[in-house]
Specification:
The protein is mainly alpha-helical. It is built from 8 helices and 4 strands; from the N terminus they run αααααααββββα. It has a two-stranded antiparallel ribbon. α4 packs across α7. The two termini are 41 Å apart. The relative contact order is 0.10.
Length: 203
C-alpha cells in the first residue's frame, strides 16, 4: 500500500524523500508494485543486522520449548481473531494496528530476547563532565571525552531488576492486568556502542 500510495503521489505525508525517490526510480525502470515492495523489504530488512539477529534468536528461544510455542501460538491466534476479520486484513494493516494490548506480548518477546541474549557490554562517549556516587558512597568523576563501559549482562541478570533472570519469560514485560507494556522494559540496555547521548544516571 505504501509503494502504491507513493507512486500515485510524490507528497505522501511523513514519507522519506529518499525512499520515495527510490520507489519512483524502480517504477521508471519498469519494476511492478509487488517487485518494488519486495526490493524495499529486502533493503530495510538487510540493513538491520540487529533486528535480524534478534528475530532469529527469538524464534530459536520459542521453538525449542514446545509448551511455550503452543501457548504463544494460541494467544496470537486469539489476538488476530479479535482484531482482524480475516488474514488479508492482518497482512494489509498499518503497523500501528499491532499496538493493540493483545499484541503487547510481541514487544515483550523482543525485549526479553535482547535481555537474555544481549551483548556483554556497551561503550558510550561522555558528552559533558559528570559526577556520580557509587554504591561504595564514593564520588566518581567522568570527564568529557572519556569512554565509559557498562556490564550489560550483569544488569540484565540482576535479580534486583529481573525476577528469575536465568529463565526466558516471554511475557516478562507485559502487565498481567492491563496487557500493556511495563515500565521495566526501560531497564533493557541493548545493542553495541556508539557516540550516543546517554544519561549516566540511567546506567
Amino acid at each position: 500500500a505504501y509503494v502504491q500510495d507513493t507512486l500515485e503521489s510524490r507528497n505522501v505525508e511523513g514519507a522519506s524523500p529518499i525512499i520515495s525517490d527510490l520507489i519512483h526510480q524502480l517504477r521508471d525502470d519498469s519494476y511492478s508494485v509487488d517487485e518494488s515492495a519486495r526490493i524495499l523489504l529486502f533493503v530495510f530488512w538487510g540493513s538491520q543486522s540487529n533486528l535480524i539477529a534478534t528475530t532469529l534468536t527469538a524464534m530459536a528461544d520459542i521453538t525449542q520449548d514446545p509448551a511455550l510455542y503452543q501457548e504463544l501460538s494460541s494467544k496470537m491466534r486469539k489476538a488476530v481473531e479479535q482484531n482482524f476479520p480475516d488474514m488479508d486484513s492482518l497482512f494489509g494493516c498499518e503497523p500501528s494496528a499491532l499496538n493493540a494490548p493483545e499484541f503487547s506480548v510481541l514487544e515483550s518477546i523482543i525485549y526479553e530476547t535482547m535481555r537474555f541474549d544481549s551483548v556483554s557490554s556497551l561503550m558510550r562517549l561522555v558528552k559533558e563532565d559528570t559526577y556520580m556516587r557509587g554504591e561504595d558512597d564514593k564520588l566518581y568523576h567522568f570527564a568529557k571525552g572519556e569512554l565509559v563501559m557498562m556490564d550489560v549482562r550483569s544488569l540484565h541478570f540482576d535479580e534486583a531488576h529481573f525476577e528469575r533472570p536465568e529463565e526466558f519469560i516471554y511475557d516478562r514485560f507485559v502487565d498481567k492486568e492491563t496487557h500493556s507494556s511495563l515500565e521495566s522494559i526501560k531497564q533493557v540496555r541493548t545493542f553495541g556502542g556508539g557516540g550516543l547521548v546517554v544519561s549516566l544516571s540511567g546506567l
